[in-house]
Amino acid sequence: MDPLTALVVLVVLAITPAVMFLLFWEFLVSLRDDALIEDIRLEHDLDPTELTGFTALGTRSTSREAPSLVRCPSCGVETLAGHDVCVVCGSRLE
Hints:
Number of helices: 2
Number of strands: 2
Largest sheet: 2 strands, antiparallel
Helix content: 40-55%
Radius of gyration: 23 Å
């Protein structure tokens, strides 16, 4: 194989994944429905700045104070007080 053909093959193999990723990204952006997201946010009275972890699926706190945290006795990770098990290691919280 001559050097020019090898260079062309190398360039094609190097650029193809990036182009495919960008096309996939554009496809995902086209699927996004901002109107639907806004309707759900308004219907459930959610504030996106307050959604952290699994609390987005639960009830929304009306207070603006910091959430209380519980430290896992097994791994030491801080978890929101409403959880029964650690979200990292699965150990039962006190």
